[in-house]
Amino acid sequence: MPRSVNSVASRAKRKRILKLAKGYWGRRKNVWTVSKGAVEKGLTYAYRDRKAKKRQFRKLWILRINAAARLHGMSYSQFMGKLGKSDVQLNRKVLADLAMNHPDAFKAVVDQVKK
User: How far apart are CA 18 and CA 10, in angstroms?
Assistant: First the structure.
């Protein structure tokens, strides 16, 4: 009996991986054995960095809030502590945007927190 191989599925799998490797440099884009590893590594980085991106943005927001709060005579930790005790419900993303783009509005928030 002849050997049965599902070449349709194998070809589809290879095409899918090579499509993901589009834009890679050299043999990584068109040689199956090389591109398989490159794509796998790339997908691992993509998964990891979706999580890291959130951490990086939080760091950026904290830096911006800290810089703006210090202009008004408060440290970041003092500002966030008083913000939690007051009834102002603004997250770090919004506060950082106010600090960068609307300094007057951020000053109003600081004044509200200082009361």
Answer: 12
3-state secondary structure of 87: coil
CA atoms within 13 A on the CB side of 90: 24
Report how far residue 79's alpha carbon sits from residue 66's, in angstroms, rounded to the nearest whole number: 8
For residue 65, count other CB atoms closer than 10 A to its CB: 22
Nearest-angstrom CA–CA distance, 29 and 27: 5
The pair of three-digit structure tokens given for residue 93, joined into one six-digit string? 């993303």
pLDDT tens, position by position, 16-34: 999 999 999 999 999 999 9
pTM score, whole prediction: 0.76
Three-class HEC string of 86-100:
CCCCCCHHHHHHHHH
